[in-house]
Amino acid sequence: MGSEAALPKWASTPCIMGIDEAGRGPVLGPMVYGCLYCARSYQKTLATLNFADSKTLKEEKREELFENLKADESIGWSVDVIDPRELSAKMLKKNKVNLNEISHDSAIGLINRVLNMGVLLTEVYLDTVGDADKYRIKLSERFPSIKFVVAKKADSLYPVVSGASIVAKVTRDKALREWVLEETTENMHRSFGSGYPGDPETKAWLAHHKHSVFGFPTLVRFSWGTCTSYYKDMVEVFWESDRVDEDVANSSSGKQLKLRNVGFTPSKRKSEEMESSAKGRCKFFQTRKLEQLTHF
Amino acid sequence: MEDERGTIGSINLSQKDKEEKVNLSSQVHHLPCCIKFNGPCSVSQYFKPKPKGMEIDGLAVEEAHFRGRKLQGTTISLPNGYSGFVLAKNNSGKRKAFDVSEGRSDNWEMKAKFDKLTYWNHDSPPSKDDPFLRSFHWFTVAEAVSSPLYVT
Asked: Which of A104, A199, A242, B9 has the highest count of CB atoms within 10 angstroms of its CB?
């Protein structure tokens, strides 16, 4: 999604872009990366448009500003909406992808998208994710022709990033508002609240929508620490893929400890019980996981 | 291995009591995890496989999510001449004493059958190399080793 008209003339002059995110912290719903770009020569005008960090603005004000910037022909924008299913899946893969990597990839994807449209990006401003210097170096290596400014609170320091934060925040709110729940069970409702773990409305929604076998609807980010407290009452689930992690965990790493707390990593005894290993049988059976059962 | 004799039992596949047993074809899912639960569950309301519109090794790939994990799977037909059954134990209380002295004895009854099932991998798309598909090789081997050997 983004501005899709024919490439404006100003796009072939040096351009600046801001990138910001919305919905990184919430336990449910998509995470949205938004960008806003314009000619460097438009920068001064941009500063007069009253873009501020989206968090400091009221919802109506944000939406009004978003409408304004969509109508402004001197501004381009784009968004990357990352589905909660994708967030959970990546963070719970065998080789786990952390949220910082997902964020970096999303920002890189937006830069690529805008470059591929033919916009001459020379400066990109963004909030830091993880260590600012490392992030800047990572981006600079990938896009040597662009000057990157990675800063904490970039969304309140640079109007172009404030604009991007509005694009992201309004898109995230709209996505959550219009979210079509995949599950077809009765008694579901859509009072998600903000999605932030501390929001009483969000807590109530989670408590009401938990399911002993399935956990939660797929709107929820299962990999979030917030979900932990609910897993205690749910049916235990042991994954074949966690068994590989276990051996690593035994030798080192605190990462696994986290997972164990979340209730994903089985104990050794239990994992053996869940999957046929065909231990001690000939290779034909082992590779096909065919075990001989004397009791069932 | 407390009892090497294993289980003695019978499996009743007759369909006398009801005209037709429930056919669960395409509703049976083999997941790459162990769910510590036995009982009815609102599967179709929560578990929503979707076709991916692509094939690997001639297997139509499907995608679903369970407990936050992405599953990729495929629906397969069981080999010709083989069927899948859902069995339930049908033991009367009396047998308990007999179990202790003579080894366990179980009677199983068919509750439903299927000729298709969907198996799921976590993280990797289905392929001909999946152990689950390869386990069917045993059928061929089993037939070969149990058929009479003719020496000419």
From this structure: A242
